[in-house]
Amino acid sequence: MPEINNFKRILIKFSGEVLAGENRFGIDPKMVDKVTDEILSLQKFNKEIALVFGGGNIFRGLNSSEEHNTDRIKGDYMGMLATVINALAVQESLSRKGAKVRVMSAISMPEVAEPMIVRDADKFLSDGEIVIFSAGVGRPFFSTDTGAALRAAEINADLLIKGTKVDGVYDKDPMKFDDAKFYNTLDYQTCIEKQLKVMDTTAFSLCQNNNIPLIICNMTIAGNVEKVISGKKIGTLITGGNDD
Questions:
Q1: What percent of the chain has pLDDT over 70?
Q2: pLDDT over 60 at 37, yes or no
Q3: Lower CB count within 10 Å: N or C terminus of the chain?
Q4: Is the pLDDT of residue 61 over 60?
Q5: What's the rounded mean pLDDT across residues 29-38?
Q6: What is the DSSP string of 181-219?
Q7: Class for domain 4-239, per CATH?
Q8: Which residues, other chains included, contact 231 with Cβ-Cβ below 8 Å and sequence gap of 6+?
Q9: Helix H segments across the chain?
Q10: Alpha-carbon dihedral sign for residues 31, 34, 36, 38
Q11: pLDDT, tens digit, for every residue of 150-183?
């Protein structure tokens, strides 16, 4: 079992919906404030922190393409731009609270974000800056989960944390089934074979191939991320890279 509290570089993936709060759409300033307070609480652990935010609170590419007959490629690009909006909102809040923050975008927009260059991201993190990766991988047909896994691999992250609305990974939807089984630990191959939907297969494979531990936990509970980073057993731990 990896010693989580010994890990130095950590990437945290938040859903875009967390920024909407109780609203179904948009950005709730109170939720942004809560999320950024939680992020800043991690600084006392002397970790290098990278962030990824989804864009589902503004636009969800695949779902919108299916529901509204939007061209899939255009829909995915709209979703990528939504992640940039979320990243800028979080950057503004963190900056106001005194943090040094960079937003990096996989789509070139130099007026608002740094270009996604791995060596620059590595330097920013090593210098103690918080880095927010946005615009996914810059191409359609890839989820923000895959984007988070790719960025974690590129920056040699020691750990990837994905926030959800449930406590971790279950064998079926715990909101619908009272007998849903909770997994404390899993390996990537089992996740792929059982087609557990907490992340897509591409994201699981990227983590597996690069031997990156993944923790799935409930981000709606204040303090959970801090507990994970301090080494407490929160959520589901998924391991099983090529070197295990």
A1: 93
A2: yes
A3: N
A4: no
A5: 94
A6: PEESEEEHHHHHHTT-TTS-HHHHHHHHHTT--EEEEET
A7: alpha beta
A8: 3, 4, 5
A9: 29-40, 61-68, 72-96, 118-126, 144-154, 188-193, 201-209, 224-229
A10: negative
A11: 999 999 999 999 988 889 999 888 888 889 999 9
Q: How far apart are CA 146 and CA 101, in angstroms?
A: 23
Residue 10 CB contacts under 8 Å (≥ 6 apart), including other chains: 47, 48, 49, 50, 157, 158, 159, 160, 161, 229
* Tokens (6 digits) for 72: 């899939």
What does the alpha-carbon distance between residue 208 and residue 170 come to, in Å, rounded to a whole number?
Answer: 19
Rounded to whole angstroms, the Cα distance separating 199 from 167 reads: 14
When pLDDT is cut at 50, 70 and 90, the band that residue 68 belongs to is low
Is residue 69 within 8 A of residue 108, CB to CB? The reply is no
Phi, psi dihedral angles at 132 (to 5 degrees):
-110, 115
Separation of alpha carbons 125 and 173, rounded Å: 36
Q: Is the predicted pLDDT of residue 71 greater than 50, yes or no?
A: yes
H/E stretch holding 161: strand 159-164
